[in-house]
Amino acid sequence: MIIIGLFGKTGSGKTEILEELKKNYSVVDIECCANTRGSVLGDLYDLKQKTQSEFDNCLKKQHEFAKNKGYCIVEFEGRKIGGAEKIDIPEPYSSLEKYSYNILIECSYDSQIERLLRLYIPKNDFEKEIAINKFLDLKKAFSKPDKLKILDEIIFLVQNDRYLEASRMIEKELYSEHYLRHIRKVKHDLLVENNNILESAEIISKYVDKILKKHEINP
C-alpha cells in the first residue's frame, strides 16, 4: 500500500487540508480516530480522547479500506498521540520508513499562531480553568527544571489572559522541537506554502493524482 504523508508543525493547517482531501481520496485520519487534535493540548474543551481500544478499532476499519484502495493520505503523528494519556499508533503509520511520499506543509509564523489561538483560546472562564488544569497536568510529565519553569510561565500568561504570548511560548517550547525532529528525518517530495486551505488542497490533489496514475491506482 502506498502511504502519502503530510508533515508540518502544529498550526500549519494539515488537519484542515486533510478534511478537504477526504472528499475525493482515501484518507486515514489518526486524529479523528483518537478524537484529539494530536498535540499535547489536543483534547481540550469539547473533545474527549478515545481509549486505546476504541482508537484501534477505528484505525483498523480505515486501514482496511485504504488497503483495498491501494493507497492512503495520512497526517504523520509519530508513535503516540494524545495529552497526558497517550495512545499508541501502530505500524505502518508510526514508521517513517513505511511512507512512500512525503508532503511538507508550511505557513507563515503569524498564520500559525493565529490558527493556534483559534483552536485553543478559552471562550469563557470554564474553558480557561480547563486550559490551566491541562498545563498543571502536563507538569507531571516533565522532570527537567527548565521545562517546569516554562509551564509555570505559560500558566501565568493564561491566568492573566495573555493568550498571544502564551501561544508563542507554547509553539516555541512545546511544539517546534518535537515536530522539527520528525521533519528533519525525511526527504520531502513536495513543499506546500499554505496560504489558503482550498488552494493548498488543490495543489496536493494534483500531486496525488500524478502518483496514483503512475501506480495505476484509481482514487
From TrEMBL:
GO terms for biological process: tRNA wobble uridine modification. Residues 6-125 form the tRNA 2-selenouridine synthase AAA domain. Signal peptide: none annotated. It comes from the Archaea. GO terms for molecular function: tRNA 2-selenouridine synthase activity. InterPro entries: AAA_SelU (IPR058840), Arch_SelU_Cterm (IPR030815), P-loop_NTPase (IPR027417), SelU (IPR017582). Gene3D superfamilies: P-loop containing nucleotide triphosphate hydrolases. It holds the Pfam family AAA_SelU. This is ATP/GTP-binding site motif A (P-loop). It comes from Methanococcus vannielii (strain ATCC 35089 / DSM 1224 / JCM 13029 / OCM 148 / SB).
